[in-house]
Design goal:
With 300 residues, the protein is of the alpha/beta class. Helices cover 52% and strands 14% of the residues. It has 13 helices and 9 strands. The radius of gyration is 23 Å and the shape is globular. This is Transposase (Putative), YhgA-like protein.
């Protein structure tokens, strides 16, 4: 599926996979652990989610979950390859589910029938899932996914407002709240609802803006002040550059945490003021640090 949606869904579900297993698939279990999703099958493949579940009876089973944003005529072949590898490696019962999150009608089949094989896996269209499962969940990671579900006749604008209000209620920390809202914006593209999300969002004071943070503004002010005191054109440019870098460093730490030293080291080597402004804007709109790194990699 498209990298943008793939990243956001994995990011969203990493902490909320139990909601999908319990509330959508109705699986009862005692314990759950994720296992390596990289499968060495001639050409390496990486699955979305593979977990080993311990049932209350003590029995262990594998659940393999994929998400797909586009109809893929070869999806059954891909799923079969995963199944064969997992069966060979783990020798446990395997259950496979493909969740379709795309905008176009679902056309993929859950069966591959040939003279030499008759294989089945489960396909679930997210549009058929009751949005109440996610919108009423305390886990914000699951709440974000409700934008992909069946709205049950609700007015779309009212429904989006309900999601945003619940995010605001449940996430008090501004930078984390902003991250969830950015995830919601990305997923809303799969339902052609990004414009409505942005409209409702703009009417609610819930999105964290790094440029309003006093520490961010202090960084820019410090740089400009040092540039004025220097008096020379080059001195002013250096002061502005230093201020921008200090502000960017603070912005990254505030929004994504302190685990970004390598990224900051790379930014410190940039001398182009316009490029630094572009990076500042990129950080403002990004929903994850991976998105920032990916964009910087493309732009060089």
């Amino acid at each position: 599926m498209a990298n943008e949606f793939d990243r956001i869904i994995k990011e969203t579900l990493r902490e909320g996979l139990d909601v999908l297993l319990e509330q959508v698939l109705h699986i009862k279990y005692k314990a759950i652990r994720q296992i390596d999703t990289k499968l060495q099958i001639t050409d390496e493949r990486e699955a979305d989610f593979i977990v080993v579940i311990e049932k209350n009876s003590g029995k262990h089973e594998i659940f393999h979950i994929e998400f797909q944003a586009n109809n893929d005529s070869k999806m059954a072949h891909r799923m079969l390859r995963y199944a064969i590898y997992l069966d060979e490696k783990y020798d446990l019962p395997i259950h496979q589910y493909l969740f379709y999150v795309g905008r176009k009608p679902l056309r993929m089949k859950g069966r591959l029938k040939r003279p030499f094989v008759d294989y089945n896996y489960n396909i679930i269209n997210f549009k058929d899932i009751d949005c109440g499962i996610f919108i009423n969940c305390e886990r914000v990671e699951a709440l974000v996914l409700s934008i992909l579900c069946d709205y049950k006749g609700k007015d779309v604008s009212i429904f989006i407002r309900e999601i945003l209000c619940k995010i605001k209620e449940r996430v008090k920390e501004e930078t984390l709240r902003g991250r969830y809202i950015r995830q919601l914006e990305v997923l809303s593209k799969l339902r052609n609802l990004q414009g409505k999300v942005n409209k409702e969002e703009s009417g609610m004071a819930i999105v964290y803006d790094i440029e309003t943070d006093i520490r961010y503004r202090q960084g820019l002010t410090k740089g400009r002040k040092e540039g004025r005191e220097d008096g020379r054109t080059e001195g002013r440019r250096q002061g502005l550059k230093d201020g921008l870098i200090e502000a960017i460093e603070l912005a990254v730490e505030l929004k994504f945490g302190a685990q970004t030293i390598k990224l900051i080291d790379g930014i410190k080597s940039i001398n182009d003021i316009d490029r630094l402004h572009q990076i500042k804007e990129l950080i403002r709109r990004a929903s994850s640090i991976d998105e920032v790194i990916s964009e910087l990699g493309r732009c060089g």
